[in-house]
User: Fold this.
Amino acid sequence: MSDRLLDFTQTPMGKQIAGLLGVPTPPKLRRAKSGYAAQPLEGRSVVLGSATDGELSPALASALHEMGATILVSTELPGLAPVKKAAAAAKVPLKTEAQGEGAYAYVFDASGMEGTAGLRQLYDFLQPRLSRLAPNGRVLILSRAAENTASVAAYTASTALRGFIKSLGKEIGKKGATANLIEVGAGAEPTIAGALRFLLTEHSAFVDAQFLALSKPAKGAELDRFVSPLAGKVAIVTGAARGIGAAIAETLAREGASVVGIDRPAEEGALGLTMSRIGGRGLALDVTAADAGERLAKEIGGLDIVIHNAGVTRDKMLRNMPAHWWDQVLEINLGAILRINDSLFTNGLNPGARIVCISSIGGISGNAGQTNYGATKAGIIGYVEKLAGQMAKSGGAINAIAPGYIETQMTAAMPAIPREVGRRLASLNQGGLPIDIAEAVTFMASPLAAGVNGRTLRVCGQNYMGA
Ligand code: NDP
Assistant:
């Protein structure tokens, strides 16, 4: 379903009328038009700053340089020394930021930051520059994960960054710009480059005010496979006939995967159309079938990527909810995932396999009338946390994506007022598109997310529900 306010306010007349009426105009988001590029930041400037004791500059300077960015630094800032040292060691050229010069992105290494004095350095870096951030630009802060900090003051500063990012997202969202935080765990430095390729590019247009925690990668992880990162991989996507699932199948194929799309036998026609468009294969299968896992192993074989996307809503207040609605939602959204994975763990996954499950912000904030749905989507968040260790043993990972309001048949069926509220109560002032979820899933399914395991990433334009 199209967003009429967004479409209207993008026209010259619409802009003018919205201005006169004081109606907020949703920004037009810039989304990726093709797959991951070798130098996605070519021709763009990124200002790199650091806290005095920042430790992540070596990883940041090299990664930004390899992405093709022009790295700007300021001679006035306290954290210049670690950036200069890192750049010299990696032979990365730095350019001095000119007075009043704008940039596509501001990246700040907040590791080593302690207490309020450390946080003041972040203020000094961003405050004078923020008004010059490009439309659809990025603010990205990297910190040491709180549990890896050495002092109470450092722990406090690390957690303070979460509130900072959430507030900043609400401030800059109106220009389509986003603010995110990467929390770097011990030994996770080699995985920073992959995360930057997602969070600093148009692949993450609808990811806003989120914290992405990176852990040490598995042994043998492919850490520099940035272009066609899924070439040679076999992927399945459930619920692939339409909506978010179809977009996921397309995006995985765009990055080189051979995709098998799965949907209920009743959707075979739509599934066939989607899959023929991307050169993939369709498999008519109800994910709740008792033998679904065995069939996937038998009919497809070794899987590298498993995307559990199929999901339904059957909304009613709990006091009125019939048992068959409860059971249907629980079985499709959660029970099937557990059963299929259990079967695939025994037989069906290749070493290093990556699993991504679709949760929902409804599982974080809850909605009246969605006790069944909310339980399944929250259950997914706990499930991926619990299984992360097991997946890591074979070099793999399991993660979840929690979409916010996304324009699909599922949300088109909502009553008009909650639909409009769902769209607008977000820093980016609009609903997302299926491609936004597909991009995040593709990132999680790829070696770019080598440091991500057991996590849930919200893709919601900083929707205020549960934020
Ligand atoms: P759609 O209803 O548009 O698509 C879901 C697809 O899954 C349909 O093709 C559906 O087929 C299929 N499906 C349902 N049950 C089964 C089953 N038993 N076996 C195989 N396939 C099945 O949903 P969306 O694209 O909007 O949602 C995709 C996922 O994203 C879901 O998990 C949803 O909960 C989640 N999500 C969506 C949000 C949104 O705003 N749209 C927000 C948050 C989360 P059929 O039509 O025959 O039922």
Notes: The chain has three domains: 1-30, 36-214, 234-459.
